[in-house]
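queue> holo job accepted (NAP)
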Amino acid sequence: MVVLVTGVSSGFGLETVRLLSQEGHVVYGTVRRDVEPVPGVHYLKVDVRDRKAVEKVVGQLIEQEGRIDVLVNNVGMGIGGPVEFATEEEVREQMDTNFMGLVYFVTAVLPYMREQGGGKIVALSSIGGVMGLPFQGFYSASKFAIEGYCEALRLEVQQFGVQVVVVRPGDFSTGFTASRKKTANAEAMRVYPFYAESMGKVERDERGGLEPQVLARKISQIIRKKKPRHGYVVASLEQRISVFLKRLLPACWFAKILGSYYRL
Ligand SMILES: NC(=O)c1ccc[n+]([C@@H]2O[C@H](COP(=O)([O-])OP(=O)(O)OC[C@H]3O[C@@H](n4cnc5c(N)ncnc54)[C@H](OP(=O)(O)O)[C@@H]3O)[C@@H](O)[C@H]2O)c1
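queue> job finished
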């Protein structure tokens, strides 16, 4: 299969292209900086916030391969801090990278998938796309946006044989934690003194989280499945239970549980 994975310089993207390439797929990966190449992977350079650049790299792939079977939209970053103090620039970077980047790629690949009679779009959401995570409010908002967009998209494109799958990882140990842009606003720290402790807990959970190879194996399975589920939660038992409880419990009960977990 011809597979395009976005954001393959580290973490899930890197492990996914490694595995898919070993499995014999024709693998394209996007990066925005020079990286140590993985054998067999074709690299495309793009910042996903640039719509024209996204169209161009998808065009290059089509020129080479004549088709695209799978898009794995993996690129993502996070901003951390009290929502009250996030700057407009930070919010735009968050939404442009995580949400608009997905929109640009889907819009670019869909005409080809429709024409060839099918394809698969795998979108990386998060368990933060199912529940609003304190001090990661705009990250959660970007992932909630992905969830709503994919739910609608799935219904619109099913008639063309295009499948849409949402993957919701829990805590994983990747480059994500170090790349998070945390507020350094002194006033934010003063007004929300519990923010630092809460964010410290988030980061410890991520650093001690699952290895990204686990997620790569799940993506490989999804790609091979004829009829994949609409969504997959890939997380520790505790986090899978939290997703289950979020769906089951009255909102005010769940908020109590989540708040006490983050010591709020
Ligand atoms: N790790 C977790 O615990 C976790 C949990 C839930 C969901 N996720 C989601 O999983 C996905 C992958 O994250 P990861 O954990 O593998 O993190 P990661 O190691 O930081 O990888 C993120 C990738 O996205 C790329 N990227 C970021 N902004 C970009 C931009 N504007 N244009 C092009 N590429 C850009 C990065 O490239 P550079 O190296 O150039 O920055 C990197 O290749 C994200 O969507 C994230 O939200 C992660």
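queue> The first helix runs from residue 11 to 22.
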